[in-house]
Design goal:
With 381 residues, the chain is an alpha/beta fold. Helix content is 31%, strand content 25%. The longest helix has 16 residues, at 196-211. The radius of gyration is 21 Å and the shape is globular.
């Protein structure tokens, strides 16, 4: 009828109008970082609008109009069936961050060069009076600084970082780390989420919050009561000292980071990692990366590959292929269903274990079902 198709994202961009737009981009950490940024802005009374990839446990929902700065989770996947451009290029942010940059979505991007291209376009098209926060611990991410038109602020453990993370450790169920900042007072941060990657994510959120006018003295305390987005290292509880944690990790790098986080949060405890790989194209292209994913786990359980949008496609790779690369030093099991995973896990789990479910789709709500199964066995702690 002559009316152009409009994607959901374009709808939210139009709602944001001329308000300050902040976009959180990168291969990993987008949802946690953007949810923390929203939480900081909310705590500061800024009434942020937002569009996230998961439900915020702090403010509720995945989207809200608000009246203040608008926070977008800047996904690099295609915008709509009729628009192959990545979502974040539609957002035209004045403030943005790139948390990580490594090949993902091989069904869309044939190579790292192709995947990198839209991030280069983002860096080169942002306004000169904007800010682009970049993780200095990732060379690909840091290299975007050379293309940035806006002010580039780097963060991480790299010695040359503008925001230098030091001394990250667990303290009373929180992660504490120190941040030395060039030309500004240092920060001492307490964060609810474990793992160095989450300290990096918090820095990105704090940089964008400061750009939005929230002073660090007001923003930093929000990190200490951040509940986070659903299924991002979400601790569902403990039954007989068995911790059950639900996490969205599905990329090999994310799997390794989540296991490292569990090691930091639960030192000395046995980690049982239960993972369902996601899509044949991703698993096939990144298969060898799985050799490094499970080194921190004591027991590994691999479930069926989540077909998702590739349902009905030829099965070019299998869960056994992933298990074969899970590495020595721990027991590795392959299960054909969530019921089989619950049966196996219930039999091998012992008090003190950490059950870490790593799955984009949740593996048939496996984490809460495991918790309920343990409780049904009458071993409530």
């Amino acid at each position: 009828r002559g009316i152009p198709c409009v994607s959901e994202l374009d709808f939210y961009v139009s709602l944001a109008g001329d308000r300050l737009r902040l976009a959180v981009c990168g291969t990993h950490g987008k949802t946690t970082t953007s949810a923390l940024l929203v939480h900081i802005l909310e705590r500061a009374g800024r009434d942020p609008g937002f569009r996230l990839g998961s439900t915020s446990l702090d403010v509720g929902g995945t989207a809200r109009l608000g009246t203040g700065p608008f926070v977008f989770e800047g996904d690099e996947y295609t915008s709509a069936p009729w628009d192959s451009r990545p979502k974040f290029l539609h957002m035209r942010p004045k403030g943005a961050c790139v948390t990580r940059l490594e090949l993902d979505h091989p069904d869309v991007y044939a190579s790292l060069d192709a995947y990198r291209e839209p991030f280069l376009e983002l860096a080169s098209t942002m306004p000169p009076d904007g800010v682009l926060a970049l993780c200095a611990d990732d060379p690909e991410c840091l290299a975007l600084r050379d293309s940035a038109r806006s002010v580039a602020v780097t963060y991480g453990t790299n010695a040359g970082s503008d925001w230098l993370i030091e001394g990250a450790h667990e303290e009373g169920g929180l992660q504490r780390f120190h941040v030395e900042r060039k030309g500004a007072p240092p920060l001492d941060v307490l964060l609810t989420f474990p793992g160095l990657h989450n300290a990096q994510n918090a820095c990105a959120a704090l940089i964008l919050a400061e750009f939005a006018g929230v002073a660090p003295a007001e923003a930093v305390p929000a990190c200490a009561d951040f509940r986070g987005p659903a299924r991002r290292f979400q601790i569902l509880g403990e039954v007989n000292r068995i911790a059950v944690v639900d996490d969205y990790a599905h990329h090999p790098t994310e799997v390794a980071a989540a296991i490292d986080a569990a090691r930091q949060r639960y030192p000395g405890r046995r980690v049982v990692a239960i993972h369902t790989p996601h899509t044949y194209s991703r698993v096939s292209r990144l298969l060898e990366d799985y050799r490094q994913s499970f080194t921190g786990a004591d027991v590994v359980i691999i479930g069926p590959i989540e077909e998702a949008r590739e349902r009905g496609m030829p099965k070019i790779v299998s869960s056994q292929d992933v298990a074969d690369r899970a590495g020595p030093g721990h027991a590795v099991h392959v299960v054909a269903s969530s019921d089989e995973a619950i049966d196996l896990t219930s039999r091998i789990t012992r008090p003190g274990d950490v059950l870490l479910v790593l799955s984009l789709g949740g593996f048939d709500k496996l984490a809460p079902r495991l918790r309920d199964a343990l409780e049904a066995q009458g071993v409530r702690g």
